[in-house]
Amino acid sequence: MTRNHPDPRGAMLATLAIVACAHKPQVKTVPPASSPPPPSPVAAAPAPASAPIQTPDLRISDELLKQCMIDLDDHQAPRFGFDEFELLPEDRAVLQQIADCLSHGPLKERALQLVGRADPRGTDEYNLGLGAKRAHTVATYLEALGVRRAQLAETTRGELDAIGTDERGWQADRRVDLDLRE
Length: 182
Known about the structure:
- The protein is of the alpha/beta class.
- It has one domain (53-180): CATH 3.30.1330.60.
- Helix content is 36%, strand content 13%.
- It has five helices and five strands.
- A five-stranded mixed sheet has the order 1-2-5-3-4.
- Strand 1 (53-54) and strand 2 (58-60) form a beta hairpin.
- The longest helix is centred in the C-terminal third of the chain and has 21 residues, at 124-144.
- The model is unreliable at 1-5, 7-55 and 74-78 (pLDDT under 50).
């Protein structure tokens, strides 16, 4: 009498297929608009003086910019690509200034809130995870530049506050907000 043993290669292939599918973002389909979309809020009138300055990759509060004497140039502002959370050279330059300010400058020992954000094209769960990865990337980089871990609080909003309806707007949604904590 022979015993039937399951083929271990079949089990391994099934496991690999499950793992591969688990890492694939599920993308929501966006129905085509019957008329051109309204102008992106990012391209609207200039923000009032009290509103935070925002680049497509980082949104930094006015107080932080003022206290650290940081002057952002929008045409140099980096962007997170779709499903990406790596820092670009432009990100690093701004974060270096913030780290110097928090480590040795006027905001020495102050704490930051880092809020990771995503555009609305993935599932809620996926976008919350992606926002968390973006916030963690910024926190890790700031820590490597000398900011104490205790000064950094990470959180994610995922797509919860996303307002983009096209690629330009979605680029603005893919960012990390930096705010001083009280």
